[in-house]
């Protein structure tokens, strides 16, 4: 990582979601002026989805060449296709369907993790998602070059599906299956910490007083087993995009 994380405070959750959206669109424009394609990793969770909905509302949405943008997920709930808990479905409803129908995002650029099938275990499904990621890796690499990787932060300081004190935290490789997630649903597929930390920019987003302890622990250098959120970082930049309440203000 280059330097300490930058903490950007917004007054409330709505402004924060709009700020994340504006920042993402501006970042995509900046990148598209120098390189292509772009790989963006989106997150589930309330604020993650609210931020995607804010992208759809932002007039800059029409300035991006969406045909050259790829979407991935940092984690996915391993539930059947169409289950309302699936991060994919929520992201499609908030933004991705609109980008496909009105802004030229090719459906093939939306790279989902597998849906639950009772013949496929969660670890096998996680490996299949890892293979998809691998196909978009530059020569010699194992993952796409993630330009922006967004992560919600849980009240226990988890990110993606990497929970405090959970064995998933120390797994190596690109992806792993989680069988007993403390946050429902229990079965999940997640990028590993190592995989997250290959991203150029990691953006952690948090809002509300219920996140204040988690944010304080993560920014206060608590060990990884207590605050996984404090142990993710971009190779170029790490941003904490938060509202005042999540800083205890
Ligand atoms: O699929 C998920 O559940 C997530 O990706 C998870 O890591 C989420 O981002 C955080 O738990 C924050 O979620 P909230 O914003 O809803 O608190």
TrEMBL record:
Gene3D superfamilies given in the database record: 3.40.50.1360
A molecular function GO annotation: 6-phosphogluconolactonase activity
Domain Glucosamine/galactosamine-6-phosphate isomerase: start-end pairs: 11-240
Highest taxon above the source species: Bacteria
Pathway(s): Carbohydrate degradation; pentose phosphate pathway; D-ribulose 5-phosphate from D-glucose 6-phosphate (oxidative stage): step 2/3
Coiled-coil intervals, chain numbering: none
UniProt family annotation: Belongs to the glucosamine/galactosamine-6-phosphate isomerase family. 6-phosphogluconolactonase subfamily.
Name of the molecule in the record: 6-phosphogluconolactonase
